[in-house]
Specification:
336 residues, globular, 12% strand, TIM Barrel
Length: 336
């Protein structure tokens, strides 16, 4: 089996010859720190996967954003709606997807497509992100119907991207992103999530499946625990929660949602501690979730510059051992 067929089999609950071990891209600045700690400079951004025993997977990030400007008056929302209805970003041009089809021709790894950026980012201006965030929070109460209309326009635009992209590429999974939480919890209540977000999640999930993308993953950050009951009703069949730390325990999530595909879930902060702490976290999370099935093990965040190279190499070795995917290689013994 290649990496792509393993992914497809695992998410379907079928047998695989070994467990895929995905990780997100390692930042160049992190590799630069590790070079100073003993990692060979031959291990660049293209070779680190082989070195650390990480399987390849990718997804295409769709960056649709509103026309810039304030959001303090009703006419401001009309400006954003008009932008989503009439502006033609590169993602809505066939040439973009023709090039992507050539780029991913004959791939042997899973490829995904983002089909939604959440209910906040389609409204926020990058030039004045914090100010527009505050304006959106007020608008949810002051102009709820206008907010819903803008989100419908954004949803239609995302769905058009899914339709166009699927003409050129066969995707293995789709992502519904909803960055809507902090460590203390979501920035809106579960009832507001059901009112403003859930209808669009259902529409996007249905659009994915209509165009042959059968695995739909809900991706978010930090403490989205109060929203998970609604997510379970959205049409998503997988969870990928980044930076969940101790707020979201995947072992407990598996008990509550036994059928969900789970991605990640290993607390990345443990890599700042000693080997015994790293081993406790890996063995606490990985073996029981693998035994339950439909689990792709990995960190809940990309390593930062303060993560020692030795600790990350030790973590990857433990992960391979826990998953039973590969024997201990000499390079890890050397790093250890």
């Amino acid at each position: 089996m290649d990496c792509r067929s393993r992914f497809r089999a695992l998410v379907s609950g079928d047998r695989v010859d070994c467990i895929p071990l995905f990780e997100e891209e390692t930042r160049p600045e992190v590799l630069e720190c590790w070079y100073r700690q003993g990692l060979s400079r031959d291990i660049d951004g293209n070779r680190y996967r082989d070195y650390f025993g990480a399987d390849r997977w990718e997804y295409i990030y769709i960056w649709l954003e509103p026309r810039p400007g304030p959001l303090s008056r009703p006419c401001d929302f009309t400006r954003i709606m008009e932008g989503y209805r009439h502006d033609v970003p590169e993602f809505l041009q066939p040439r973009y997807w023709e090039n992507k089809a050539r780029e991913y021709e004959n791939r042997d790894f899973p490829l995904g497509l983002m089909g939604w950026r959440g209910i906040l980012l389609p409204l926020l201006s990058r030039e004045r992100e914090w100010e527009s965030f505050q304006e959106v929070m007020w608008a949810l109460y002051d102009y709820p119907e206008l907010v819903k209309s803008v989100l419908c326009s954004a949803r239609d635009c995302f769905m058009e991207v899914v339709r166009l992209a699927s003409r050129f590429l066969a995707f293995d999974f789709g992502i519904i992103a909803e960055p809507i939480a902090a460590p203390a919890g979501p920035v809106i209540s579960p009832s507001m999530f059901r009112e403003f977000a859930l209808p669009h999640h259902r529409d996007i999930a249905a659009c994915f499946r209509e165009h042959g993308i059968g695995t739909v993953i809900f991706r978010s950050f930090e403490n989205v625990g109060p929203l998970l009951p609604a997510v379970a009703e959205s049409g998503a069949d997988g969870l990928w929660i980044n930076q969940c730390g101790s707020a979201i325990d995947y072992v407990q999530v598996r008990r509550q949602y036994p059928d969900f595909l789970l991605i990640g879930g290993i607390n990345a902060r443990v890599l700042l501690r000693d080997e015994s702490a790293i081993e406790r976290e890996v063995m606490r999370v990985v073996p029981p979730l693998l035994q339950a099935g439909r689990y792709l093990p990995g960190l809940d965040d990309r390593p930062r510059e303060n993560v020692p190279f030795h600790n990350y190499a030790y973590y990857r070795r433990l992960l391979q051992e826990a998953a039973g995917t590969a024997p201990l290689q000499a390079r890890y013994r050397d790093a250890h």
